[in-house]
Amino acid sequence: MSKLDFKLYVITGENYHPGRTLEDVMREALHGGADIVQLRDKTAKEPELLEKARLLRRLTREFGVPFIVNDYPRLALEAEADGVHIGQDDTGFSEVRELLGPDRIIGISTHSLEQALAAEDAGADYIGVGPVFPTGTKPGRKAVTLDYVRQAARHVRIPWVAIGGIHTGNAQEVLNAGATRLCAVSAIVGSDDPASVCRKLKSMIQTSAGADIMLNGTRHRTQAATLKQLVEENGLAGRRIVAEADGSIIPREGWGETMLRSGMTVELVHFVGGG
Q1: Which of 42, 63, 254, 268 is the most exposed place for a label (fewest CB within 10 A)?
Q2: In terms of DSSP bridges, do strands 67-70 and 36-39 run parallel, antiparallel, or are they unpaired?
Q3: Residue % of the chain over a pLDDT of 70
Q4: 3-state helix, strand, coil in the chain (%, to 5)
Q5: What would the pLDDT profile of 67-96 be if each residue is shown by its tens digit?
Q6: Which of 138, 150, 200, 228 is catalytic?
Q7: Nearest one of 97, 26, 93 to 65, comparing CA atoms
Q8: Catalytic annotation on 138?
């Protein structure tokens, strides 16, 4: 698996599983399909953090998935992690890249399209898009809402992962807004069955991961999850469009609820000018 060939990104959060060890909980998440793991601990001292990083490095190697350390690039090197994740207020990207070298992963948290495009221009390997919903892992941070997810889906070219307050009850909304990768913390590590939650989220991602359709008589591969997103993907938002799916005309107000699936036939008829 390529280092960035991931769909489900899981971050540690030991405060969500008192009485259960970090190793046990993260092993369950990996059994459930976690594709990438990040160590995030804002309270541990560096010696304890290094011990946890080395534990997770062994575990992620066992499962063959990338391991990321939050905030500490030097510790990431010492633990032989695959990379580091930094925030908007952390050490500058160029300094981290110089320290880590060209081959390790650098991810950046972003909270707006402006920050996303700046991270992309800087050379980030991936970005976090969020927090989509209010979350206890980012107290006081205003949610970016699904609007930013939709902007990222339209404009961001590097891999990006939606994060923040995501769980099985709202993940489909995030996927419908254009996300193809999800990150969860409390929903997974705070669950009595982390593996089951991972499998559910992974299944939702895979079900929504694009479709092969017939669009105006031509085979077309799309990452759009809904008819509304397909219209936007083709630059037709706001235009005078009649949309037909499998022979039925879909009213404009129903485009957002019309899910695309492989094999579907879609016609988008754009009317130019008046009668």
Answers
A1: 42
A2: parallel
A3: 95
A4: 40, 20, 40
A5: 999 999 999 999 999 999 999 988 799 999
A6: 138
A7: 26
A8: yes
